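User: ok so my PI wants both of these folded by tonight, can you help

Assistant: No problem, let's get them done. Here's the first:
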Amino acid sequence: MLKERLEQVRQRIAQACQRSRRDPSSVELVCVTKGASLEAIREAVRCGVTVIGENRVQEANAKHAQLHSAYPTLQWHLVGHLQRNKAKEAVELFDVIHSVDSVALAEELERQVAKGRRGIEVFIQVNVSGESTKFGCAPDKALGLARAVLQLSHLRLRGLMTIPPFSDNLEEARPVFRKLRELRDELQQQVFSQSLNHPITQSLQLSMGMSHDFEVAIEEGADVVRIGTAIFKGQGAK
């Protein structure tokens, strides 16, 4: 049952935090609902889920229309790739976008948010592994993109996101997560702490880790994990 699977995920998060001497409350669970039914999402909310993630604007739009009035405090995160022509819809639906990978996209989001919506939080997606099938900016472009985002008054840079290559050997994801953490530390020192628009109040966060590798991600410093399959197993979630 979903309740048991969700509790297992929470226990695994806590155990990974214990191994890395971290407070489990420091890791945010984004419950990815791609392909999940409305009733399954409702059950997850009844079990204490407060943040849901969607991969596509269109699917999120349909679910938001059905769920928002009943659960107005739910946070909605876009965890999949975002095309610029979907930016207007995205800023109307989501509180956080994990997949900003270009200056052009960031500027389009700024234009749309500036039309009247409150500010929105964003993660910069970094293609650490360099896979051609992955979205995200190259690691050597992340600092420049961060500087550009920090000049946009309606966007709040929350941190960095990455997706490692899929492998049955979870240890192969570790160097990818570690490199993102190191990049975050460099960015924190060189850019974020010097920003006048966004004076530093807390560390930039790391959005990394999904159903098959989130424990390794937590051990390497993940602040946000994006988990779907382990919770909605058999319902199409990713």
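One down. Here's the second:
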Amino acid sequence: MGHRPRKRFGQHFLADPGVIGAIVAAIAPVPGDNLVEIGPGLGALTGPLVARAGHIHAVELDRDLVARLTERFTPAQLTLHAGDALKFDFAALGPRLRIVGNLPYNISTPILFHLAECERQLVDMHLMLQREVVDRMVATPGTSAYGRLSVMLQCRFELEKLIDVPPEAFQPPPEVDSAVVRLRPLDAAHRVPGDEALFARVVTQAFAQRRKTLRNTLKGLVTAAELAALGIDPGRRAQELSVAEFARLAAALALPEKSA
């Protein structure tokens, strides 16, 4: 369409009609949805989303693409926010947010953590990422893909891998396979309670040296005896612990007598 993809923005434009249709069907937008698209690009998803929802928001960094989208869609169809999604205040768009995006693969993890900050205003997110990242997001304990990203997202969201997307579905094709994942916020009864900052510290420290046991990685934070008292074998490694076990550990560390 006359636009030269820019490497510094990680631009790979979705072009396969079948994949586009499958993603839109998974999102199932309806009029009145508070939809926001990250990186609309040339509008491959934007058009079908607008057609179903009537109006959406979009965040786009590339000024040339902002100009193209402004020409193609009316303000009644598209509210365009020119800027960096990593710095954008998604919470300012109001409640019951539905976020859609083909995320730049080079900054996908920071964007995921940024989006997670507005979880209480979310209905769901449908995101396209490098397949390897999606596999890490949905990984289960005891697998090689399970890590800090898995735990920090699964403590907040229900995740479901939906669609594998091959490189040839894009122009230009990326060098990696892609996948679409759905994230839905957990209800209050299933959320990890307590001190979120402490939980994040425990998880980060535990995974800092994956090959070492918890006895070593959590040294200075909790003793081997305290781990055993919680029913957690200090000889296990971080990738063997469930989200619930990390939550139990963080909750114990947050007790007044422990912090004292």
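The mean pLDDT is 91. The CA atoms of residues 143 and 255 lie 31 Å apart. Good luck tonight!
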